Known about the structure:
The chain has nine helices and 20 strands. The chain is an alpha+beta fold. Strands 9, 11, 12, 15, 18 and 20 form a six-stranded antiparallel sheet that branches. Strands 10, 13, 14, 16, 17 and 19 form a six-stranded antiparallel sheet that branches. It is globular. The termini are far apart.
Amino acid sequence: MNEPHISTREPIDASWWAPVQGELAAAIRRGAPQNTIIATGEKWGGIDGLVALAPLADRNVVYSFHWYEPFTFTHQGADWAGEIPKLLARIPYPSSPVAVAPAVSALADPRAKKEVTVYGGERWDRGRIEAGLRRAVDWGRRYGVPVFCGEFGVYRKVSPEADRARWIADVRSTFENLGIGWSMWDYDGGFGLIRYSSPGARAGRILDALAVNALGLTPGAWTTGSDSTGDEIVLDLDPAAGFLARTRTAVTIPIQSWPRLWSRDAAAATVTTQEDAALAPMALVLRHTGGRDWAQSSGLRVAVSAGEKFTLSGTVSLEPLPGEPGPGTASLEAVTYDSTGAVLSWSFAAVSAKAAAARDAPGMRPISSTFVIGPGVAAIEPRWSGSGPALVRLGSMRLARETGP
């Protein structure tokens, strides 16, 4: 359970959690006797809850805590964290009365002014962070158990970037000096390490170089360069990034990145993957017993303009199911959208797969469709679709911009 806590509005204290966690651990052990268990304390999984906890009667346990201190700094601008945090912005780190004076002057709410003033007077720096974290270390040594920080981070929406990086570096290096393992929150959310150049498609990953350096990591050969400030590094891990940025003319969309298959008869579809050098080398194997339609999106929505020319290609095999008179259908196509995101066509430029005849050698066959974008189309999304009972093997889709006539 992540960050266990019961609201203080309810007539119960933090002591509820220890017996519940004990019962959960016992249930885990009945099914997984050798797996390591991650346990935590109440009070949102923080150090206060950890040090109030008696360890489980189990030696194969790691004890996790979360570290977001000082909350005034790490959660500034967070509209879910209470009335005051959402009013805060540009709160500095380290803190002192002089450092917070501009932020205090900019605030109108007296409660927010008081909180930031107190934060300044507390003089948060690396030394104060270390003093707080030593409570977890001392608890672990007292009981002879390992402790681990499962979350730490700073909400990035309105926090000063350099100060955010300084806090991350101070916390991370303190963890390592104290022998505490760590995991930063999070990957691509509000506390994230990356953002997307195409957020809707979750593509075109851009790395926060300040945060990477603060974590003691070194970007490798998988980067394509940095921006003019050096604060962000473009990743080359995403095969769609260059295509969406128009620095590449084609993109292959492997089945591993496809979202879940949709079927109008949900119970009629079973999906597995098949690895074989003769099959693309990996294929999605769809066994569909229903009489209605199914669809497998690529998950990649591409912004387009009228007059652009594309070729969409893929590999497919279509066979009848045993006992069925004939196979259903399968086709490669594009869904088209207007500028508001409304669907214009579900099967634009569709090309159908041919059913394998009994005399044919089994295997995947290539199909492709070349098309020109018409007026009013703002985006396309490649996909496979079909209907009826069939055994269908689907290989990777490839979308290419054509530059010729």
